[in-house]
Amino acid sequence: MQLTPDLLLRAYALGVFPMAESRSATEIRWIDPLRRTHIPLEGFHVSKSLARHLRRLQARATLNQAFRRVVESCADRPETWINASILEAYAALYRAGHAHSVEVWDGDRLIGGVYGVTLGAAFFGESMFSRATDGSKMALTFLVHRLRAGGFRLFDVQFMTEHLRSLGAEEIPRAQYHRRLKAAIGLPATLSPPGYAPALSEVLQTFGRSQISTQTS
Question: Global pTM?
């Protein structure tokens, strides 16, 4: 089965996403977990140590400046579900305007990133990577700020990990997720709101003191 942009978008609208068993696998599995993980956009946690790290590095974020590099970096690990057909399918979805990446830079060095898919006011996070301490957490921080500014209602991150839990991720039953998905994909949202160009200090201020947690990164 060829993973076309149309097929992928229809699958996401139904709450289903593709995965391969390994980098060398040729078959694709369609996943619809019994319990789905999402990050409430108003409940994202930025730890004090992460906030300090962001300020110290003066890290900057970009949108869609290195999409393929981000996906390839996400796949660059001993075990991955991103095989060649998935890589090419999401590259095609990116060219169609529905897949996006957020890149985090320390100077000219790409130190973290996340990529995913948009459909209406839903963002489906696919994978993330780090090349420096907190690289993926920085990417998620910048992404959540952009999602909030652009009117998104659902940030799906598929499966729970301790990494995501520390940032405020929650698990919900499949049926509840499908209800939220149906509502979100019918609403407008954008990753590039007019005039969006926040300074790092503005990004951190947006979350407020109540969302700067005492957890360590």
Answer: 0.92
